């Protein structure tokens, strides 16, 4: 902790002394994706942490930032397709502008990019727009001309290399093949994997830099991770690897993906038997070691699959690079650890409004912790998928004995059931957090795993259950898959509740229009109910954002009469909560 504080102090001094050349100080979105018009984001520290709900604009900011430097375009991530066409309104096109520091002239300049219809939405530099709050271009001078266009009508885009690392989507060669293959049997996948693993072992043993198999080149990289980088990996993970070999290959399918062979004093093993966190750290360290002075580093949930101690060590490593190479880092995260360790001026808290995504005027650690679900001591925390479910749970708690309900606090995770059942279950179970999760009824498929007796788990049944959960967007991570599945089952069995309905929108729709035809459709999905609610609210000229829906839901629930269908559903949820709360009290 003291080392992190020392690094922050040193970085702050360098930042205040204007040593961070090319630093992006401000981002403005006159029209960009789901952001409210003219959203402004101020970046006041070399490491910025973005906190917000899933779908709340965090990754969109990273993608915009990646497209800001010269010869880079946000179209790498966002482009027009027949399914998701972009709005090519010639009058009100998608666009953003940003302000960056030019050390040579000691001046902050403003640059603008706009999406055109060329190449499915390529982003082109444009002249500044005073209507959007940009400054008028000054006359060119010998001092400033090299940073302007030849005509002097705009500042040149910032020249720096952006690195985008998305820990959520990176997967090993084993995971890509074994859990993403077609509908083959477990035995068939195992046979295929064993066959092609022989070729991989040959490449490892012979240290092959090239390998043609069935007329196709199968190896892109094959090297032993240098000791300085291995030391960093060991420090972050608190491991004692003697060596590690990194191989990018296409032996299992047509896509190049990494395998890492770890060696300790006791044994040698591949990423198949390592945790997802180990591979994520290896990928991150190898990428970060390529970063040069003044570069831009964009990290999408780097804490994925890492315990809090490893997150702390990773942040310390990142801060060390910031201090030495004066790079700028923007992190999208759900990690309370990052929020806690960084200064307040490093935080950007995003929220949803009726106009779109907005930035809280004053982003504080308290608001960030609230958004991330930081737990209150001496309370049983009830975590829900979203605000609407939070409203329903609070209503149900009114029917729970007060000696139980007053010990609870409810908050919406706003990260989706997949994130909750994957990374959050793992984090809460490791820390012993006093938590109950309440999920939508459309997650009922995963509850069949809750009934599995962990004592009956075998290697084949573990793989079968993990494959089933992955097919339902739930990931079990860790080097000991059987143990981690056992811990997951035990935690969920005691602490996860599902409501009876597909989703709370189903109840809201019932309260708004009990005769809606969708309510008779036994196969109606979560999405259909959400769309139906928005459609009903639109037809009634009501706001449709999540906060407005929650307020309306609370009001309508208050008017429900005893014995009505919705009343019985509230009573059912109240009973489930009562039982779980009593079980936790006894334990």
Can you lay out the helices and strands and say which pair or pack?
Elements: H1 2-16, E1 24-31, E2 39-42, E3 47-51, H2 58-66, E4 95-102, E5 107-115, E6 123-126, E7 162-166, H3 173-178, H4 186-205, E8 212-213, E9 216-217, E10 219-224, H5 227-237, E11 243-249, E12 257-263, E13 268-269, H6 276-288, E14 296-300, H7 308-325, E15 328-332, H8 336-341, E16 347-353, E17 356-359, H9 365-372, E18 380-384, H10 387-397, H11 402-405, E19 408-412, H12 416-431, E20 435-439, H13 447-450, H14 459-471, H15 481-495, E21 496-498, H16 504-512, H17 526-539, H18 546-558, H19 565-586
Which descriptors apply to this entry?
587 residues; Rossmann fold; 19 helices; single chain; alpha/beta; 6-stranded mixed beta sheet; 3 domains; 39% helix
């Amino acid at each position: 902790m003291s080392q992190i504080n020392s690094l922050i102090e040193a970085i702050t001094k360098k930042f205040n002394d204007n040593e961070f050349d090319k630093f992006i100080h401000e981002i403005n979105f006159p029209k960009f994706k789901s952001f409210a018009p003219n959203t402004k984001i101020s970046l006041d520290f070399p490491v910025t942490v973005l906190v917000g709900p899933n779908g709340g604009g965090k990754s969109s900011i990273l993608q915009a930032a990646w497209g800001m430097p010269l010869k880079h375009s946000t179209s790498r991530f966002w482009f027009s397709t027949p399914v998701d066409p972009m709005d090519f309104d010639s009058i009100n096109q998608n666009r953003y502008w940003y302000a960056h520091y030019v050390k040579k002239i000691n001046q902050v300049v403003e640059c603008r990019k706009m999406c055109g219809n060329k190449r499915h939405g390529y982003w082109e530099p444009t002249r500044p727009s005073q209507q959007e709050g940009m400054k008028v271009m000054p006359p060119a001078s010998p001092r400033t001309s090299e940073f302007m266009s030849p005509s002097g009508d705009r500042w040149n885009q910032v020249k720096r290399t952006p690195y985008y690392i998305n820990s959520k989507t990176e997967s090993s060669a084993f995971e890509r093949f074994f859990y993403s293959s077609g509908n083959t049997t477990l035995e068939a996948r195992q046979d295929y994997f064993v066959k092609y693993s022989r070729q991989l072992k040959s490449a490892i043993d012979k240290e092959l830099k090239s390998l043609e198999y069935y007329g196709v080149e199968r190896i892109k990289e094959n090297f032993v991770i240098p000791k300085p980088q291995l030391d960093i990996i060991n420090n972050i993970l608190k491991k004692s690897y003697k060596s590690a070999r990194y191989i990018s290959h296409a032996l299992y399918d047509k896509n190049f993906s990494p395998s890492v062979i770890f060696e300790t004093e006791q044994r040698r093993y591949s990423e198949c038997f390592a945790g997802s966190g180990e591979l994520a750290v290896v990928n991150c360290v190898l990428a970060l070691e390529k970063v040069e002075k003044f570069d831009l580093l964009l990290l999408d949930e780097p804490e994925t699959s890492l315990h809090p101690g490893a997150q702390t060590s990773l942040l310390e490593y990142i801060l060390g690079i910031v201090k030495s190479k004066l790079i700028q880092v923007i992190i999208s995260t759900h990690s309370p650890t990052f929020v806690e360790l960084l200064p307040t001026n490093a935080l950007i808290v995003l929220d949803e409004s009726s106009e779109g995504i907005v930035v809280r005027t004053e982003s504080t650690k308290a608001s960030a912790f609230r958004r991330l679900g930081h737990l209150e001591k001496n309370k049983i925390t009830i975590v829900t998928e979203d605000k609407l479910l939070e409203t329903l749970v609070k209503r149900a708690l009114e029917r729970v004995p007060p000696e139980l309900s007053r010990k609870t606090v409810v908050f919406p995770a706003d990260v989706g059931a997949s994130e909750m059942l994957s990374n959050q279950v793992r984090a809460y179970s490791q820390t012993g957090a006093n938590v109950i999760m309440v999920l939508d009824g459309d997650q009922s498929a995963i509850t069949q795993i809750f009934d599995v007796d962990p004592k009956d788990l075998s290697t084949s049944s573990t793989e079968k259950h993990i494959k089933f959960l992955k097919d339902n967007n739930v990931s079990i991570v860790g080097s000991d898959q059987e143990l981690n599945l056992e811990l997951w089952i035990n935690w969920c069995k005691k602490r996860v509740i599902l409501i009876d309905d597909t989703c709370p929108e189903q109840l809201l729709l019932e309260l708004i229009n009990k005769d809606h035809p969708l309510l008779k459709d036994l196969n109606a999905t979560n999405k259909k109910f959400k769309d139906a609610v928005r459609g009903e609210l639109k037809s009634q000229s009501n706001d449709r954002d999540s906060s407005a829906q929650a307020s309306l839901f609370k009001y309508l629930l208050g008017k429900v009469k005893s014995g009505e269908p919705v009343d019985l559903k509230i009573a059912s949820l109240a009973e489930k909560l009562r039982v779980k709360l009593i079980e936790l009290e006894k334990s």
